[in-house]
């Protein structure tokens, strides 16, 4: 059994070893939009606007109809007495629902499964997709990467971070395949190719229960194979709340600190009144990688949500982080946590606290000096992937020895 307290250095990294669980950052920088003083003022203006809208509901308002629907031009009144303004039919917009938008995202995610991003990819991995039905009736996009060059000896279930999608981890999945790990991944609700309004999370408890159901399915399809979970940022928080088997976490979203106590007070109320309302951030938020090409690829990807955070989504992040901070001592699985010391999206010291308070007998933490939030998209990505794979392989070898004995 490993014990805590051993300090080591890898390229740009400081490590303390003790057992198997991995955590990495994954909460979007746009969370800060919900927590800034500027947004606090926006909250007050928003409440004022809600009151005005409520009052305006009792006023007689003009109703716009397309000319094709009402052939006679001009202004008049309908039978209810409301003013009717007839305009050309082209001016009246017809919005496509979130179902159509989700279907378009799903079609794009499916097309990407068949695209080879690097030469010789087909000799390393077999990439497939499947739809997973939740207990609520939602359809979630899932995909898998199966080793081709060697037999499968372990499983990794991957959970992406807020506003991104599982396809971003194609390169990492192939690296895992090269060492005999079959990888499964799920786009959680409102993300990637899954159902729901893009970037909108009605409840992170949905993602928690969906992960549990998906994990049960993966284990049923692969009996007797050791399984690990990997999660980034908010994906790491979802895994932690599940208290599942051996885990690896990068930049886990454990603490998000509001800039004013009033934000925490108003968030639950606004999440009920206008859950899909979006606050406008002053900028795109702090950088998540020091690699310009990685940033360009992320924010030009249509499957990555780049809009301002929605009220309910922000509230759900506050809710799950509050839960985790009160329950870190309940973590008792093998754990590896990884975090960049310059991450301004999720708190590195919260990862340190997780490491210290977790009741796992096998736990390790690696703090990478100067690295940012998206560790697997930093210039040192291959070194970080190696740290993860080395940890996975050592636990896999230990499991194999136990089975032989």
UniProtKB/TrEMBL annotation:
What the entry lists under Gene3D superfamilies is as follows: alpha/beta hydrolase
Give start and end of each Serine aminopeptidase S33 domain: 152-380
Entry keywords, A to Z = Membrane, Transmembrane, Transmembrane helix
Q: Which SUPFAM superfamilies match?
A: alpha/beta-Hydrolases (SSF53474)
The answer to whether the entry has keyword Transmembrane is yes
Q: Which Pfam families match?
A: Hydrolase_4 (PF12146)
Question: Where, by residue number, does the polypeptide cross the bilayer?
Answer: 39-58
Q: Which PANTHER family match?
A: PHOSPHOLIPASE-RELATED
Q: What is this protein called?
A: Serine aminopeptidase S33 domain-containing protein
Q: What is the lineage of its organism?
A: Eukaryota, Viridiplantae, Streptophyta, Embryophyta, Tracheophyta
């Amino acid at each position: 059994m490993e014990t805590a307290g051993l300090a080591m250095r890898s390229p740009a990294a400081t490590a303390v070893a003790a057992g198997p669980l991995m955590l990495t950052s994954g909460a979007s920088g746009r969370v800060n939009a919900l927590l800034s003083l500027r947004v606090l003022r926006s909250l007050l203006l928003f409440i004022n606007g809600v009151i005005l809208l409520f009052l305006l509901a009792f006023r007689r308002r003009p109703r716009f109809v397309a000319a094709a629907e009402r052939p006679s031009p001009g202004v008049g009144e309908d039978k209810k007495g409301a003013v009717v303004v007839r305009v050309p039919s082209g001016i009246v917009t017809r919005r496509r629902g979130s179902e159509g938008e989700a279907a378009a995202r799903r079609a794009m995610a499916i097309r990407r499964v068949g695209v080879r991003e690097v030469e010789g990819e087909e000799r390393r991995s077999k990439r497939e997709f499947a739809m997973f039905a939740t207990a609520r009736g939602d359809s979630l996009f899932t995909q898998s990467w199966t080793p081709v060059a060697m037999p499968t000896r372990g499983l990794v279930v991957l959970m992406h971070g807020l506003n991104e999608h599982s396809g971003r981890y194609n390169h990492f999945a192939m690296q895992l395949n090269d060492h005999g790990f079959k990888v499964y991944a799920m786009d959680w609700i409102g993300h990637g190719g899954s159902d729901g309004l893009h970037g909108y999370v009605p409840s992170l408890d949905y993602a928690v229960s969906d992960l549990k159901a998906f994990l049960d399915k993966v284990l049923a399809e692969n009996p007797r194979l050791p399984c690990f979970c990997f999660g980034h940022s908010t994906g790491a928080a979802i895994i932690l709340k599940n208290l599942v088997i051996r885990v690896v976490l990068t930049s886990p979203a454990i603490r998000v600190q509001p800039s004013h106590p009033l934000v925490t007070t108003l968030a639950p109320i606004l999440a009920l009144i206008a859950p899909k309302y979006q606050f406008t951030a002053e900028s795109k938020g702090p950088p998540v990688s020091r690699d310009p090409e990685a940033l360009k690829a992320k924010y030009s990807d249509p499957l990555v949500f780049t809009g301002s955070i929605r009220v309910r989504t922000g509230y759900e992040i506050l809710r799950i982080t509050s839960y985790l901070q009160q329950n870190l001592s309940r973590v008792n699985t093998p754990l590896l946590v990884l975090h960049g010391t310059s991450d301004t999206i999720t708190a590195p010291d919260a990862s340190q606290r997780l490491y210290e308070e977790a009741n796992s007998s096998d736990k390790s933490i690696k703090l990478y000096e100067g690295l940012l939030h998206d560790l697997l998209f930093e210039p040192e990505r291959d070194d970080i992937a190696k740290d993860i794979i080395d940890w996975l392989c050592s636990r896999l070898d230990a499991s194999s020895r136990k089975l032989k004995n």
